[in-house]
Design a protein that fits this description.
The complex is a heterodimer of chains A (341) and B (531). In chain A, 24% of the residues lie in helices and 24% in strands. With 341 residues, chain A is an alpha/beta fold. Chain A has two domains: 200 residues, 4-Layer Sandwich (Metallo-beta-lactamase, Chain A); 127 residues, 3-Layer(aba) Sandwich (Rossmann fold), CATH 3.40.50. The radius of gyration of chain A is 20 Å and the shape is globular. Chain B has 531 residues and is α+β, with helices and mostly antiparallel strands. In chain B, 36% of the residues lie in helices and 24% in strands. Chain B is built from 19 helices and 21 strands. In chain B, the strands form five sheets. In chain B, strands 13, 14, 15, 16, 17, 18 and 21 form a seven-stranded antiparallel beta sheet that branches. In chain B, strands 4, 5, 6, 7, 8 and 9 form a six-stranded mixed beta sheet that branches. The chains are: A alpha/beta (341), B alpha+beta (531). At the A-B interface, helix 7 and helix 9 of A face helix 5, helix 6 and helix 18 of B.
Chain lengths: 341, 531
């Protein structure tokens, strides 16, 4: 049996012909990186290849590394294997990685969403034979509504809190979710304050995207000046002394997990907005269909359930163990946010 | 329905009692009388009987969602709530309805008698016209059990706020049997109606666990001590030549305990006794495990009556000669009770004996003996205390014996429900046992899902997801690795349990990170604890 174009090894997804890894979780010589979240772009590789919009992000996060940036659709060959990056729509600079050799095409999605958020380059379906997909929200219980509606709700919530003289604290990942929230907050309502982790990342991204003005919260920030305004904070700040000093406040989280009543109640968050940077159930099914792939490999999320459903739909689907955080993420204190913070 | 759905949403989205009371009070001030009665009924667990069984609900919801049944089931295990799962998977709509809560409930009552086809059509029609939250509430009304952190006490508080009627009086009015479909708000809450009171129990007075040093209770002579029995707390009512037995859960259980019919002939009308229903096999007080065989049974066979007879251990008298004597001092009620029990002279009615102690040290010694008589510890009651409503501090305290503990190994885990949905929090623990070949193996002995902090649960959840051996539907077997100290109240031999032992109220006391699985206890260690 011939070696598959991409293999799942203990270090990551490996192309043995090109001797290159995709989003490896152990240090390797050469890595192609889908996007800047910590579980996909790790420290310690000798050479990084990624989309040029992701370059400032991983330089900020990983420090001095050897990285080269590519354009969307730009092809590059490594030992006769043809590679190219295509928008994944997950966060700014997130790519799907297309791998072609002798007419066979594989696509690795990293993380992706089909909804256009207005700041990440919108997802494009890529024709392939084998599609390696995430399925973080691969359950029919997950259905996203248009982000316009979610942001109307978020801004209304902020206004209501303001009229009650309270500070609004909104939780979202410092890379990706925080900027998406920031982009659509109504600056007519009040000022936008940020936690350090979010402020730093946003500064890195300002040359690429036009964002509203933000004010970093420092030791000198008086809690009175926060009243009626909104604070963007990473989820790990919830329950910290940093937050407790801001009373009176109201908290909200923007995440796909907020679909579940239990998830919000468990974290003792006052309000949950369902807003995700991953595909919902229908989004996953539609994008898989659009690739025309006959083989599907599910990497993280509800992999067992999702691949069983795909098999019933006639796909040759299976799961592979990776160290990407699907089921664990967002609800979990040991997830990427705390690694980052 | 809109108002009601909004109320549930508000109650569900806050942990603050004051916000909940305010939301309920606001609702009670705008809702129609009929909707109010239904709301009180639902929040006090008096919903109409389930019109559609959950098997059909699952089947039809997956059909409308156009997904296979197994996928619906998997989703349910992860979401952790049936109504929520249904509301999430069926196609989303944004429409809403003008139908009232009462209309929905009347339809649901009528629905019970309809054919499956009609039921299905009714569900599809309503799932399609309700928005997400209304759909959830509608389905919840069918499946039952709104666990949204609203106790009856909290609801009564809100009702008192909006009607200006005293809370304790309201609590009494809401006790017992009343049918929300027949009764009006006027009759239920506002009117005085003597004839309704025939079977009505008084609200139970409940004690808190003792907080401080026992000696801080002061002069021993002001207090009365007795055993805290481990059976079913009950209220026995004899009025108008009829017997009514209520459990603490406000369930009328008269028919389950035919032994007690004899009370009607020997005890005068207008008597209400607070007592514990206890198993009495072989002429001795048994364990709660013995009583289990009587609890869920609808029909009680002669054989069972002989095998597990029951008695009433009486400890208080609430009504005498038709007069409510709850405000008289405990010592007065107790003296009367002793006379009532003595003159009844029935084997099934026994007195819970008062302990005569001259010092707190003697009381403490008595407590140490509790397990031997199958009691949970002691009850301490001030001799001058009235019989209060609900859980109150000060006059009555429970002083339980320290729990038994054993170190078990975590072997299986299941996702929790409600606020623990999608998190592995329900655990199965095992102890060592030698098999026929002389090899040690782990044998399941208890399930527990409380006692850890949220942070600990998250850590273990994370570990479970990475150390799963096998999946059986919602259950995962995990690598035996973690040891937990499990506490439990009682213990008895049981043929229904794999380990041969049943434990009462098992819960996690602490995570023994310092112990390896080989240092966990064995089944024989557990059996040695049986008295």
């Amino acid at each position: 049996m011939k070696t598959p174009l991409l293999e799942f090894t203990s270090k990551g997804i490996y192309c043995s012909i090109a001797k290159v890894y995709l989003d490896p979780w152990k240090p390797v010589d050469k890595a192609i990186i889908s996007h800047g979240h910590a579980d996909h772009s790790r420290w310690g590789h000798k050479a990084y290849i990624t989309h040029h919009r992701n370059v400032p992000i991983i330089l900020h996060r990983l420090g001095e590394i050897n990285v080269s940036g590519k354009e969307w659709g730009e092809t590059f060959f490594i030992n006769n294997v043809k590679f190219s990056l295509h928008p994944a729509g997950h966060i700014i600079g997130s790519s799907q990685i297309r791998v072609e050799h002798k007419g066979e095409v594989w696509v690795f999605t990293g993380d992706y969403k089909v909804q256009d958020d207005g700041i990440s380059t919108p997802y494009e379906p890529i024709k392939c034979n084998t599609f390696i997909t995430e399925c973080t929200f691969g359950l029919p219980a997950f259905k996203w509504v248009a982000q316009k509606e979610v942001f109307e709700n978020i801004n209304r919530w902020w206004s209501e809190n303001k009229s009650e003289g309270k500070t609004s604290i909104l939780f979202g990942y410092s890379l990706g979710k925080a900027q998406r929230l920031l982009k659509y907050l109504e600056t007519d309502i009040g000022k936008i304050y940020t936690h350090g982790a979010i402020e730093n990342m946003t500064q890195v991204l300002r040359p690429l995207i036009d964002f509203p003005k933000t004010t970093l919260i420092t030791r000198d920030t008086k809690k009175e000046e926060l009243l009626g305004n909104i604070v963007l904070a990473p989820p790990s700040a919830h329950g910290s002394t940093w937050i407790r000093k801001m009373v009176p406040y109201v908290t909200a989280s923007a995440s796909g997990w907020m679909t579940f009543r239990g998830a919000r109640r468990r974290r003792a968050i006052d309000k949950g907005f369902v807003l995700s940077d991953h595909c919902d159930w229908q989004g996953l099914l539609n994008s898989i269909e659009a690739t025309g792939a006959e083989k599907i490999i599910c990497t993280h999320g509800y992999t067992e359930i999702f691949s069983r459903y795909l098999q019933e739909q006639g796909y040759d689907a299976r799961t592979e163990e990776t160290q990407y955080e699907g089921e664990l993420n967002e609800l979990n204190p040991t997830s990427k946010e705390e690694v980052e913070a | 329905m809109k108002n009601f759905a909004q109320l549930i949403k508000t109650l569900d989205s806050t942990n603050k009692t004051t916000t909940k009371v305010q939301a309920l009070a606001n609702y009670f001030s705008v809702a129609t009388d009929k909707d109010k009665v239904w709301t009180i009924a639902i929040l006090s667990h008096r919903r109409p009987p389930r019109p559609v069984n959950t098997t059909l609900l699952r089947k039809w919801a997956s059909e409308l969602a156009n997904i296979p049944l197994w996928l619906f089931e998997e989703s349910y295990h992860i979401v952790g709530d049936l109504a929520e799962t249904i509301a999430l998977v069926v196609p989303a709509t944004k429409s809403s309805t003008e139908k009232t809560l009462t209309q929905f409930l009347e339809e649901m009552i009528a629905l019970k008698k309809k054919t499956d086809e009609q039921k299905k059509a009714y569900l599809f029609e309503n799932w399609k016209i309700l928005d997400y939250y209304e759909r959830f509430v509608f389905t919840k009304l069918i499946t039952g059990g709104f666990r949204i952190g609203v106790s009856q006490k909290l609801m009564t508080r809100a009702l008192a706020k909006s009607t200006a009627i005293d809370q304790d009086i309201l609590a009494y009015k809401l006790m017992g049997n009343w049918n929300p479909d027949k009764i009006t708000f006027q009759q239920l809450i506002l009117e005085e109606n003597e004839s309704d009171y025939l079977s009505k129990p008084y609200p139970f007075y409940l004690a808190y666990p003792i907080e401080n040093e026992i000696a801080n209770l002061g002069d021993i002579n002001l207090w009365s001590a007795e055993h805290k029995w481990d059976g079913i707390r009950s209220q026995t009512i004899i009025r108008n030549n009829e017997l009514f037995i209520w459990s603490r859960g406000e369930e009328l259980v008269t028919d389950k305990y035919p032994e007690f019919q004899a009370l009607v002939d020997t005890i005068p009308n207008g008597t209400v006794i607070d007592a514990e229903i206890l198993p009495f096999p072989n002429g001795q007080i048994g364990t709660f495990n013995d009583l289990q065989s009587r609890i869920g049974r609808k029909t009680i066979s002669k054989n069972l009556l002989q095998k597990v007879p029951v008695i009433l251990k009486a400890y208080d008298l609430l009504e005498w000669k038709g007069e409510d004597i709850r405000n008289r001092p405990f010592s007065y009620r107790r003296d009367l009770l002793e006379k009532v029990v003595k003159s009844a002279a029935l084997n099934v009615l026994q007195l819970s004996k008062t302990m005569y102690c001259n010092s707190w040290e003697e009381v403490a010694k008595e407590r140490e003996q509790s397990r031997e008589v199958h009691s949970e510890g002691l009850m301490l009651k001030r001799k001058d205390s009235p019989y209060l409503v609900g859980r109150k501090k000060g006059d009555w305290w429970k002083w339980k014996v320290d729990p038994l503990t054993i170190d078990g190994v975590l072997t299986y885990a299941m996702r929790g429900h409600g606020r623990r949905s999608n998190l592995f929090t329900d655990y199965t623990f095992a102890l060592w046992k030698e098999n026929e070949k002389g090899e040690k193996e782990l044998v399941t002995f208890a399930k527990a899902y409380s006692g850890l902090t949220d942070a600990e649960f998250r850590k273990i959840d994370n570990w479970i997801k990475k150390n799963t051996l096998e999946r059986f539907g919602p259950v995962r077997s995990v690598t035996p690795h973690h040891v937990f100290e499990i506490a439990f109240e009682g213990i008895a031999l049981s043929s229904r349990h794999k380990s041969g032992v049943a434990t009462r109220f098992p819960r996690i006391l602490r995570w023994r990170k310092d112990k390896s699985i080989h240092e966990a206890n064995s089944i024989s260690d557990l059996k040695q604890m049986i008295i």
